[in-house]
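Course assignment 3, question 2. Fill in each field.
Student: A.L.
Task: Predict the tertiary structure for the chain below.
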Amino acid sequence: MRPAALLSLATSVPPHIFLQKDVMNAAWGIFGSRFPDYERFAGIFTNTGIIKRHGVKPFDWYLTQRGWPERTAAFLEGAEALFVDAATKALANANLRPADVDTVVTVCSTGIATPSLDARVARRMGFRSDISRVPVFGLGCAGGASGLSIASRLAQARPGTNILLVTVELCSLALRLDELTKANIIATSLFADGAAAVVLRAGDGGETLIEAAGEHLWPDTLDVMGWNVDPLGFGVILRRTIPEFVTTELKPALTQVLGRMKLKLADIDKFICHPGGAKVVDAIETALSLDQGTLEHERQVIADYGNMSAPTVLFILERARAKGLPPRSLLTALGPGFTASCVSLRHAA
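Answer field:
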């Protein structure tokens, strides 16, 4: 089968900008007097590498306790707007109309919508009535890479059809004022909102091809990353040992994945990685024996946008494409499961 070609890529963020220093000060006011030994963990905010982030609601909205109805209303409004903006820009970049889309893959793990987001925006977008919809939930931070893999395989299965991938995550809506846990403090210091959209087609067009894709699922790692669900909403599951886990476990996993692609680590000219935070970026460079500072786009994106979960790695791919991709890149992201998702990209200058 002909590989899928990446025709275009676009990103979008909501209008509200949160400076990390302001988030840190607000967190002191919210958690400082209630969280034992909070001062010991407050340094997390300065160690993330984040300068600013974006959210779907004004800053003060997050300073009041919210339940499922309010969070869901904010999710539907914000996610639909980001979906439309990112998808519209990606289609325009590919010189396509919404009516040209044959299949839409929607990746999101930070809200629940039935009907799904793609159906909710279908009329506003101008999708055809016979469009195939593939909503995907639960991939978390791995969703950008896994979504690209899913969309590319759908493109391969129907050469000549246009596949639209949209990843949208509103991580800010999972902020919990009631959870006095290390995981919640870490999440408060890291997560943000954003969306990315990609247009794929197999058979023609595009300088960047999806060469291969694969995943590695580590056994007995359900507690590394994910959601708790309770009457107030999602509550983050996040172990602080992720950088240590990456340092020891990432390289063997990628070696196995690449082996199934008939490739080796030495065949990769550039790594494009989801940055969980500054320490995770450092751990990736250590694990893959990369020179310190190699993952410059990852650090720039985390500084400008924070960790937006699934879309983040596509923001990094956008910057890498603008600078010029080498012949072969490996796009990787880690997410709940605990899973490493990988996509090999071939680029013709």
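Instructor remarks: DSSP finds twelve helices and 13 strands in the chain. The first strand starts at residue 4 and ends at 12.
Grade: pending
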